[in-house]
Amino acid sequence: MDNLEYLEKFGNRVDIESLRKLKKAKLHEFRTKYQKEYKAIFDRIPSLKLNSTETIETAKELIPWRKGPFQIGELDIDAEWRSDKKWERLKESLPDLKDKVVLDVGCNNGYYMFEMAKQDPKLVIGIDPVMHNQAQFDFINHFKGHDNLKFELFGIEDLPNFRSFYDVIFSMGVLYHHRHPLEQLISIREALVPGGEMIIETIGIPGEDSTCLFPEDRYSKMRNVWFLPTLTCLKNWINRTGFIDIEVVSVSTTNFEEQRKTPWCPPPHQSLEDFLDDNDKSKTVEGYPAPVRFCIKAKKKPTSPIKTF
Q1: Buried b vs exposed e over 200-230: b needs ≥16 C-beta within 10 Å?
Q2: Residue closest to 200 by CA, chosen among 295, 136, 308
Q3: Considering only CA atoms, which of 255, 230, 237, 307 is closest in space to residue 15?
Q4: CA–CA distance, 229 with 251 (Å, rounded to integer)
Q5: Residues 6+ apart with CB under 8 A from 85
Q6: SS3 state at 32
Q7: Which pTM value belongs to this model?
Q8: 245: region left, alpha or beta (phi > 0 left; psi from -120 to 50 alpha)
Q9: Which residues contact 221 (CB under 8 A, 6 or more apart)?
Q10: CA distance 44 to 244
């Protein structure tokens, strides 16, 4: 869990010493806070065999599975989210990922990383500060065997440790969970190479004006939701943080086929049906407009200077 040697070849475009300190702190947190819950699983994963009882039981220990689906031999993990549907909406608009260095911000268990791997990228780093998600990623990648996929317990706030580094950055389902959306966009821009591409997917609200909703308390029962823009507002944020060639990839509404409870994400875990008004599915349980999902791609200016440490 503490090896960052794969980043050394990138030289002064990554602050590897700061990242090593961060990773050391994460390892300490694991040993003091999560070892009892996850150590046995991490120790067991390297010896798991396809279709074995132990493999199936390990997957069940890792419930809830939020992102999927995954097919591992005869094991079918039907996660809460049909993430394949989101990928279908955007994959035709993606840049070529072959031989590229890619970042997936808030990668969860790495579902989209495994889809990206099909294009043979040079390196895909997924960052997500949740130990449960790393355990699921390690479980899946034990069977997939992708050496070019790396999961790190970093957050979006750690992105300034990369400068002019990534060819493509994905940020899907993250922007609205943080207090400073423009700061996020600037961090993404600075971590991209000149001419690099950002694919951002986030929830927002319907409307034509350049406005955003700031919930009084919770939104769809989530306390960590801050700014929910209209599509026009989101495009303005992206434009004013220095991106060019802004293109709307998709506008969609999540339905009960795409997000729902399953045996792999069972009660008492909640899902879409619990977040919307029982009598009016166009509203959240708090009475706000139900979320609309926006996906946009944009580029960093190719004339931007290359920044290093």
Answers
A1: bbbbbbebeeeebbebeeebbeeeebbbbbb
A2: 295
A3: 307
A4: 13
A5: 257, 258
A6: helix
A7: 0.96
A8: left
A9: 270, 274, 275, 285
A10: 47
